[in-house]
Amino acid sequence: METNLITIKPYDSVYVKVECERSIAKELSEFFTFKVPNYQYTPAYKNKVWDGQIRLYNVHTQTFYRGLISYLADFANERNYNLKNNVEMVSHSISDDSLRKYITEHLKVPFEPYDHQVEAIKHALEEQRTLLVSPTGSGKSLIIYTLMRYYLDQLPPDKKILIIVPTTSLVSQMMSDFSDYAENSDWNVEDNCHYIMSGQEKTTDKKIVISTWQSIHRENEKFFRDFHCVFGDECHLFKAKSLTGIMTKLKSCDYRVGTTGTLDGTQTHKLVIEGLFGLVKKVTTTKKLMDKDLLSRLKIDCLVLSYDNESVKQTKKAKYIDEIKWIINNEKRNEFIANLSCKLRGNTLLLFNYVKEHGFPLHDLVKEHCPDKDIYFIHGGTDVKQREEIRKHIDNVNRDSVLIASYGTCSTGINIKNINNIIFASPSRSVIRVLQSIGRGLRKSNTKDKVRLFDISDDLRYMKYVNHTYRHMQERTKIYNNERFDHTHKNLKLEG
After folding, report:
1. Is the Cβ–Cβ distance between 348 and 446 less than 8 Å?
2. pTM for this structure?
């Protein structure tokens, strides 16, 4: 084998084969190995069956994620290695005008696509595999729909398309969105799309399968062999092992498109997601969409609650989970949240984290304090059809209600346009959760063009000690600054 030569050869739709000298192979393996965040807390690490590291290059099989070829090229260039790439990429080239015509005249979508949507679709067609980073409200479902229909026209008759989403609610919503896009055409969603969730049949003759990742991640390779195109919507929410398991079983799936609102703080490492889907393409930002008047204007009120000295002493240097328990069980705090929910005009989304300990008590309090408002409650145990009915009712009928919902069910992907206010009742420092939760209220409607967020945090500092949730508030403030959101801080004293 030639010295200093790295040769890339086709392997399958997941991997390429990378051939090189043993010394280069070892260098490759070390360079593309990283520790997983919080690995030390995983059972596999504690049981000493895993060292907490992910290796993107397998020295023994000489395989490397296909989506990371450009990273391999950078690796070779920086070290003056010769790189020979024998992997061909299939690209679909189309002009902006032709693509717009395809969407409005061929697909008969009942509105004009935005520039950023056209750019994202073009990029995906040209690159064959990509990871589209675009915020909530940017129209990712139309991007997926257009690409899906385009690839459907190109695929062999025996091949199918797989669309994977993180929640059952998103399965229903995607079916609903596709129906809206196809309402002026002869293309029928029910005739062409099969959905898998909550025990639904997994085998079908239909060309398009929409499924939660939880429903299919245990399926064997035989289940995945007919899929030639895959979309991973909100792919940052898939568990790392499950995402890798699904995507590596798609051996003959050349077309791969992932979508996400943000990658900061994701459960899976950025390189793994890019390796499985393709390189990141930043489509647009929330601020740009606001400036173009495509999203509602956002005003954030950071409400910092402070407590009496006795309360501060009770929580001094408490473990994180103990501080959280103290906060969500604080009667004065919950009364404050309930009163705030009642005073706000319009539809309010009240988000919490712990269902039994916080969600149910908040629901009872808000119902007690707000007898003149319609009160809705959504958590993991709420039936999918009931969630969809609540969503439609708030969007189309109600103008002054409170939706009390868990972060897990409503912070991602749920499309409720007529949300006027959002309340963060539980503290969080996750970039993903914060931005996705804000996105619940940013979509415009005929009845609103602005949304107000009340970010509730707790100041339990004692001398030089800074409590956990106060630090989380500081992290959220950094997010607001980075996103250039309009935000102010107000300090409020709670007694007791």
Report:
1. no
2. 0.79
